[in-house]
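dude i think i finally got it to work??
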Amino acid sequence: MKTPALPIDEEQRLASLHDSGLLDTGTSERFERLTRLAKRLFNVPIALVTLVDGQYLRFKTSDGQAHDPFPRDISFCGHTILSPQPLIVNDAGSDERFADNPLVTGEAHLRFYAGHPLRLPDGAVAGSFCLLDRAPRDFSPAELDILRDFALIVENEFAVMSAATTDELTGLFNRRAFESLVKFTISSARRRAEPLTLGWLDLNGFKQINDTLGHNEGDEALRAMASIMRSNFRDADILVRYGGDEFAILFSDTSEDGAWIAMQHLAEQTEAWNASSGKPWKLAFSWGVSEFNHDGDGDVKAWIKDADKKMYDMKTSGRPR
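look at this
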């Protein structure tokens, strides 16, 4: 087993890592959502955001279980931080650096690893966004590009720029994150030959809530809508506050008919929420759904426009829920 060397700037790197405060904040739902998405897109059992401290690997995501600090000297991520390029290990069992590593020979039985180094705003390498599997596998150039984009999103979060990917009011992804993540979902759906459908949602009467009851109540309405969406859609579905009172949902492995049923269920659950909320306003919305055409030219703007038009048709037809 090859123990990872120390970076030449190790002292400065550790100082930057400790100054960042990332070691003090534990796991984060922001990163959990990204790793859940990565597990589905790459079809791997484990995806993690790690930090490489002096002696231990520390985790910003739990992958569904508690993680104690892990010895750095047997970690794959300890090797990842040594280069600006991603570390791809297709079969650790036949790689002399890792073949006798306890993570390979022991209960974990790891065989595949793909890790991209993560940088802090000052350029210091903090850790890795990594994918792991218990079977050897190839990793294509297209998958490598997607891994890089995931790492970039995490680096934005490291820079305490929550607005880069997260809507501060609702906690959903924002428009910028949507524009970054949509290509991941399209690439994954094409690779798996799975349907992918975009849902577009616009609140009805939202301006009236703001104008008559004030913006605090308007903000509460947006938060309530986001909460209902989170409760009624799957972890694999990407939920977005696109702007104002517009929301988007990327339904993975779902046809247009399936997405329509999901939106109808959301409308029913919203009506149930209205009946028990005690609020002086009611939530209502119009929606449209549009399935991505894998045989088309991949025009995302046209796809959004189609879903938006269907939403608008519902709003103007007198049929909005």
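The mean pLDDT is 90.
im so relieved honestly
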